[in-house]
Predict the 3D structure of the following.
Amino acid sequence: MKRDNMLRTVFGCVLLVFALIMAAPLQAAEKQLEIGGTIDVDLFGSKAKNTDNQSDLKLDLFELSIDSKLDERVSAHAVVKYEEGDQQDYTLAVDEAYMTLSKLVDQPLTIMAGKWALPFGVFNSHLTSYPLPQDAFEINAPAVSFIFSPEEVEGMDISITGYSSKEARFADPAAAPENDFGNYILNASYAQGELFNLSVYFDSEQGVGERNDSMGASLSATYMDTVTLDAEYITALKRDQDRPKNLAYSVAAAFKPLPLLELVGRFEGYDDDVDGSQSYDPDTLEGLEYRVSVGLNYELHEHATLMTEYRIMEVEKEEESNIKDWTVRLRIEF
């Protein structure tokens, strides 16, 4: 039954792609329409103390993106993902769907509305795995964002985003939220071309008695398209119901000795703010101390990349050994 459902889902995705591709030429005369996507196929394995080696081959991701620019001030974007979930079941979901309205009243103001990865964290990655701050703090929820880009300071963006309480990180399924838009994010970023990008962000969610507040910052810098440095730090400031004040950080570097070859290294740490040594939980990240990753990316073709990553995870509990895993990924982008 599970295989039949998966085949039907894949078949539906294929039909959707085919329909969109066929419809694109008909609508191109009226508006700009771009269809793209990503397919990731992974060969992966893991090893921990007193356990057998585990390895498998899987379709890790099928992603379809649609961008439509109706005119110079109105555009729309959508991303549909078909990927493996936490229970090793494949899920089909709309990961992003939002509209963008720019300078409607001849002011440097942009309005975004819909569902997307909200501007709390940047989460740059040149590896097959997500950085720790993303695993710990990413927010993807229905929202409305107001972005102000002062013309006097080129590269500066300041935004305030209100987002739904029902899909918030600390949402309580058993309790109705007091205010469906009681959660907000403040973000300020400054970019100097492709040289560097600095962002600072603050998130506040309604809680029980107290609010759940977090704050973070990130810096990305590139030198001559050869060396890229990424650093990010996010920490909890306040938590309701005595929740632990966790924090996560990541420092990464990517170097291109050849135009088609990229070498990557990343160190990332986590503090679960729980006394004593905890057993490692991959869902909550409790019991994790740090991760070290190295990787290699090679561009096989303009649209095809071979990616590899070897990662070591150090855990708190002495009875549990650090976990070593590796991934070889073939990525096709269209």
